[in-house]
Design brief:
- By secondary structure, this protein is an alpha/beta fold.
- It has six helices and 24 strands.
- The chain folds into two domains: about 130 residues, Immunoglobulin-like (Sandwich), CATH 2.60.40; about 280 residues, Alpha/Beta hydrolase fold, catalytic domain (Rossmann fold), CATH 3.40.50.
- A hairpin with a 6-residue loop joins strand 10 and strand 11.
- It comes from Anhinga rufa.
- InterPro entries: AB_hydrolase_fold, Acyl-CoA_thioEstase_long-chain, BAAT_C, Thio_Ohase/aa_AcTrfase, Thio_Ohase/BAAT_N.
- Belongs to the C/M/P thioester hydrolase family.
Amino acid sequence: MAASVRLSPAARSLFDEPLAIAVQGLGPRQRVTLRASLRDETGELFEARARYQAGDGGELDLARCPALPGGSFSGLEPMGLLWALQPQKPFRRLVKRDVQSPFLLQLEVLEGHGEPAGRLLAQAQHERAFLRDGVRRVPVREGRIRATLFLPPGNGPFPGIIDLYGTGGGLPEYRACLLANYGFAVLALAYYSYEDLPKDMKEFDLEYFEEAVNYMLQHTQVKGPGIGLLGISKGGDLCVSMASFLKGITATALINGSVANVGAVLRYKDVTIPPLGFNAKHIKVNESGIADIIDVLNSPLEGPDRQSFIPLEKAESRFLFIVGQDDHNWKSEFFAVEGSKRLQAHGKEKPEIVCYPGAGHYIEPPFFPMCAASMHLLVGRPVMWGGEPKAHCEAQIDAWQQIQAFFHKHLTGKPSGTSNKL
């Protein structure tokens, strides 16, 4: 009997869903290497490989069979072939640009544990998709807004969220559309380096973001009375600023965000918040040429840098801080703790803080492989993001659930039959 790969779901799954992988038809206790690979939209190859030994009946189920040492990972890791994917060229991060097309995952079963691997015994391919059937993707060009709205299937209205990414600019849509698969109306909002928006990060006008908030609050498919904000990195401190100054924001979730304004001047009407100062002499560069920028930013608790601390005590929003404790971009846990102290000092509710040991800066939706280092636009060289791959993968799975639970709780209220008090 020839070897064959068995996948469940068989042909297609959402990117953030688990994929069950098994091989049948091998010889008893046969040694094989499994190789997974995919190409991103620029043609860059990402791959992972793992060494296995089949059972007595020639069956190999990754949910029950541990990987042996010598591959990209070892131990019982049913999704290891996905979270361990690494770029063949250094400093590349796996991102999805066109969410309307899936990633095509290739799986190969190769004979033995040798280098190079032995002959091909079986192969399969599988689509890892981003849009659930029925989710609508709506480009938004209203006033100054440059965005994409994702609406779940059904009649709505749905709890609404604005989603912001970091210093990479452009209009990443993949997190917004994955979130829309779970019943949220999500607006992926560009704010610089996209179409006719500013080309660089010199200053941001909060009135641009206010337009986007008002667009969502007035949308017939968005359930009021307030909306949520989700931001990672620089997008996180923009979300804190929005929650602090703008009306209609009920829940704000930050992934490794800052509570100080970073990287650009922020203006709103007659208010100006300067960016947090930094000292480039604190950049440490290792022998591989990768910069560690963890100590570059000044403290927002001292001297003139206190003006950069965003007045989040003005917010009417609840806050959730998702923290990677091995974040090397900046001190995310320090920012979360200082934000919490400031809120409580002003009589506001303590925010939720969820910390993940071994997680780095880019906490993405589940099963995105960890990016240890990549180019940083503002630094002009590769920087270290931190993280340990297995712990980071586990953090991504849990954080995704925490974010959805937080938004369901504060945007839809408690399940019926309980008190309406939040």
